Amino acid sequence: MTTYIAVDIGGTRMRAASYSADSLTPLKIDRIKTRKVGSPPEERLIKLLGRIWPEADPVAAIGMTAPGPLDPTTGILVKAPNIPEWIDFPLADYVNQHFHVPVLLGNDANLAALGEWKFGAGRGHHHLLYLTISTGIGSGVIVNDSLLVGAHGYAAELGHITVLPDGPICNCGQRGHLEAIASGTAIANWVKTEIARGIPSSLTVIEELSAQTIAEAAQQGDQLAQEAFQRAGTYLGQAIADFLTVFNPTIVVLGGGVSLSYDLFSESLQSAMRQHAFDENYLDDLTITLAELGDDAGLMGALALARDGHC
Amino acid sequence: MTTYIAVDIGGTRMRAASYSADSLTPLKIDRIKTRKVGSPPEERLIKLLGRIWPEADPVAAIGMTAPGPLDPTTGILVKAPNIPEWIDFPLADYVNQHFHVPVLLGNDANLAALGEWKFGAGRGHHHLLYLTISTGIGSGVIVNDSLLVGAHGYAAELGHITVLPDGPICNCGQRGHLEAIASGTAIANWVKTEIARGIPSSLTVIEELSAQTIAEAAQQGDQLAQEAFQRAGTYLGQAIADFLTVFNPTIVVLGGGVSLSYDLFSESLQSAMRQHAFDENYLDDLTITLAELGDDAGLMGALALARDGHC
After folding, report:
1. Tens digit of pLDDT for each residue in A4-13?
2. Residues of A in contact with B241 (CB under 8 A)
3. Is residue B68 pLDDT above 70, yes or no?
4. Which one of A245, A282, A285, A311 would you mutate to disrupt binding with B, by most B Cβ within 10 Å of its Cβ?
5. How far is B107 from B110, CA to CA, in rounded Å?
6. Residue B58 per-residue DSSP state
7. Distance between CA B159 and CA B170 in Å, rounded?
8. Exposed (0-12), middle (13-18) or buried (19+): which is B5, by Cβ within 10 Å?
9. How many CB atoms lie within 10 A of CB A69?
10. Residue B287 has pLDDT above 60, yes or no
11. What is the value of pTM for the model shown?
C-alpha cells in the first residue's frame, strides 16, 4: 500500500504522520520538540520521520509545512521565526537525501488554507480566502483550484497589507499592517493603551493581557474588552472588502485562536465588509465561515501537498 | 487556414480584426462607432464583425474585450460604463447565435494585461501585475501563467483598493481608493484643489486641467505640476508594495495615458515601493516597466483569449 507522509514544523514542536492514499486517519503519528541543546532541528526532524516511517509500505511523497518565508519551488526555507538554526536552509533537499522520496515544502498559513480547502470548511469551492488570526495574521488563497504562491512562494501575506497608513508599527517594522491592528497581539496592545489612558475595565487587574483573557472579559460584559474585538472586526471587515476586490472568492475561512471568539466581532466585521465592498456583486454568493480543522489544518495541507505533488 | 477574431469594445468605438493562427498582423481590421441613434450597439457589433469576417477561411473563435464588470464564465456583461443599452447583456451568446463559433469575453483591463503578457512587455514572465493609469486605474494579474478572474470575473480590480481610508471619494462612491488618489482624474483634481488654495502655478491660466496639460507644465518646470505627479507616484508605489505582498510577481507593467509621463513619477513610485515593501525578497528580481502595446493591448488580449480558448 502506497503511503504519504505529512509534517507540520512549528517553532516549538514538529509533528509527522503517515497516511494511506485515501484516508485522513493517520497510520502512525508522532511529535517531537523542534529545538534541544546539542541536537540540530534538522536531525530531530529525521529522527521524528524515522519513528512514523512505514515498516514495509513504500512512501510516495513527503509534504512539509514550516513557518516563515520559504520558496516552494526550490524547497529552501529562507528563515523560520523561532528556529534560528535555519537560515536559507535547503530543507526539502536535506530530507530527500535521507529518504530518497519527493519532498514538497509549503508555508504554514498557505498549507493551512490548502488543508481547509481540501478537507475542511472550504471543500467544493474554487476560489477561497483563508485568514488565520492569532498572535499574528497569516493567510492563504486558493485561486481557481490552485494555491497562490507567486514567483518565489512569498505571495498571499495578507496580514502585511497596509490598512491604516498612520497606524501602529507591525512586527515586521512597517506601519499600519492588518496584523498590527487586528491580530491577537494588536487587540491586547490596544486594550493596554486604553487602560493606560484611564479607560475603566475589569481587565485593569489582569497582569498578562492576551486576546484570550480579553475575550473572557468581553463574554462577561466588559465594555472595553468588547470594543477591542469590535474594533479588530471593523478593520478585518475593511481589509476583507479589499481582498474580495482582489480575488472575488466565494468563501472566506477564518481560523486561528482569535477566530474562536468570532461572536465578539462577527457583526462589526460583516458590517464593515459590506460598507467597504467595491460592489454588491462581490457579496452575492459569499460565505464567511470558521475553519474546521483547528491545529490540524497545516498537517492536512501538508498531506494534500504530498498527495497532489505540487502546491 | 483557420482564423481567429479579436474585438475591442469601448464606450466610443469598437474595433475588430481577424488573424491567422500564428501572426499578429491582422488579415482584416476595421472600426465602428459604438453608439448611434436608431442602431443598437449589439447590431453595430454584428455589422462590424461582418466587415472583417474571412470570405472563405473558417473562424475558430472570437475573443472580445469590453469595459465594466462582466462574467467571463457566462459571457454576460453586467454593465458597461458608457454603453447604457447593455445591462446584464448576454454578449457572448448574442454573438455566438449570429456566427455559430465559440465566443469568449474578458474585462478590458484584464485582457490588456493578457495582451501585454503574451505579446508585449511581460513576455516570458509567469507572475505579472499590470496597471493601466488613465482617467481611472484598471488592472490585470497573471498568476502562474493564468489570468486572475475570480469566481465571477470580478477579481483584480486593483484601482479600487483602499490606500488612504480618509482620502478623497472615488468614482465608485467609496473613499480613498487608489483610483481616487493616483489616476489622471485624481491628479487633475488635486492640482485644482491646490490652485484653489492659492498655490502658485503656471496652470492657473489653463481652463481645462487634465493629467496631460499638467504633465506638459511639469516638463516645463512647474513645481505644483511636478509635485502632483510625484504625489501620485508615492501612492502608486505604496499600493504596488502591497500588491507585491499579495502576488509576488516578477514584473509590474504600467500602461495608460498617465504612464507616458513615467519620468515625472518613477522616482517617487520606486522610492515608496521600496520603503513600504514587506521584505526585500519581493524586490530581488522585480522589473518595473512600461507597457509596449499601447491602445492595442486589449485587442491583443482578445486575440490571446480567442487562440487559447479560455482566460
Report:
1. 999 999 999 9
2. 162
3. yes
4. A245
5. 5
6. P
7. 10
8. buried
9. 20
10. yes
11. 0.95
